[in-house]
Amino acid sequence: MIGGVQVVDSVADGFATLVSDVLARPRRGGFSLFLSGGSTAGEAYQRLAHRSAKTVDWASVDAYWGDERCVPIDHDDSNHRLSHQNLLDQVGPLRSDHPMYRSGTPADDAADYQHQLSELSSFDLVHLGMGPDGHCASLFPGSDALDIEDPGIQVVANRDPDANNPYDRITLTLPAIARARLVVFTVAGTSKRHAFSQIISGDDLPAARVPADEGYGWSTPTVRVTVLLPEHAHPASAGPPTPVALSAWPVRSGP
Prior knowledge:
This protein is of the alpha/beta class and 255 residues long. It is 23% helix and 20% strand.
């Protein structure tokens, strides 16, 4: 199933299955894959590397990132480093590799990344995690970047106004994420359960705004959001894992 909330035994295995199947489909040209960070992503990428080794032509994949900490590319907290260690270094050469932060100021590197993304007609797959505060990418509650609605602004520098998440950041904006053909959330860990319950209840957390509404200039009516959630973490779970309708994730939908 693509679209909706999928309650799974293993978020990492569910991610690997879904994404490897999407990557293995015949296509013309390259495939733009936007990667994430965090421990859940690291485990998911390890499983994806194993599952996709013989089924995916990684030489046709263009690797991008949805957000990044402004740290050196070989820093322990770099999303780029995490993605390479757990996935990209395991699967062979890519068509292209686009680090989000190199060494400049956050604003300068954000502007450079926006220029790179301007060459893409759409984003094929964007992987997002979710923080205990409901943030996704580096779109934090109360941060300036969260309120950007201009579809011409795709990438910005940002920081957590509550200082719960360290480092200056570079992040895709909500209008940029709305360009994706498929958005995949991976939500795991007891620390995320409260935020997920709030989203189910209709609270306006950052992750609940993905994808953005039609005012953000959708490029395609086929955008789908898939949320992978461990069975034990679903607020209403009782019994074996079952799919949950997309309406359970109250995102703003496109036209």
